Amino acid sequence: MTMDKKYPSRSEYxxxxxxxxxxxxxxxxxxxxxxxxxxxxxxxxxxxxxxQEKNTSNVQKKTTTSKAxxxxxxxxxxxxxxxxxxxxxxYISDKDGLSLDILTKFFGKSKTSTVSxxxxxxxxxxxxxxxxxxxxxxxxxxxxxxxHAIEKTISGLTVNRxxxxxxxxxxKIDNDQTTDxxxxxxxxPNYYSETNVDGTTNTTxxxxxxxxxxDGANCTINFTNGNVSGKSQTGLK
Length: 237
Fold this sequence. Notes:
Elements (H helix, E strand, L loop, with lengths): L9 H7 L10 H40 L17 H5 L11 H8 L4 E7 L2 E8 L5 E12 L2 E10 L9 H5 L7 H8 L4 E7 L2 E8 L5 E12 L2 E10 L1
Antiparallel strand pairs: 1-2, 2-3, 3-4, 4-5, 5-6, 6-7, 7-8
């Protein structure tokens, strides 16, 4: 036996015995496998990246969509301007009524200033136009004599009424009734006016809205020293 005789190689053995390589033993099979693996990895990466981009896009879209819209500021329900309470606090008297300087500090500079007369006394009249809860054209007018407020008027006030003022309501107003009794019957007026000269106080209430009557219907109640001294009406039913 010759010691240097070699065993046939695996390929020689298979060829001499008529054996063929299994398909998984062919070189081209593994090249295909490698290509599939590489291609599959690339495809998987593409699908993963595309999916991530889509998810990111959806998140961004959702975030944008769900972003809270800025709330609109609610309009203030408190009207600014001179109030009826402030009007009532204006002390009037030809002896020691409030001065224009004091009212200017509270209400600001008047819109207009004119000269007029009350009971033959020369006065200056100051007008302010910014009235709380007032209609267009509402205003406060104060007349001064020797720099003392002697007359004040506020007009164009908005009043909400439970029922309309009728001619029958107006007929219930009698002389010597007080201002409180009148407001109990007719409600609050849209117009107030008051003068104080030579110790006599004259007050006027005028009603212009919430009346049962013709267009432009109104009624006026006059007071002297706090009691009804006269009345008039137009167009009430």
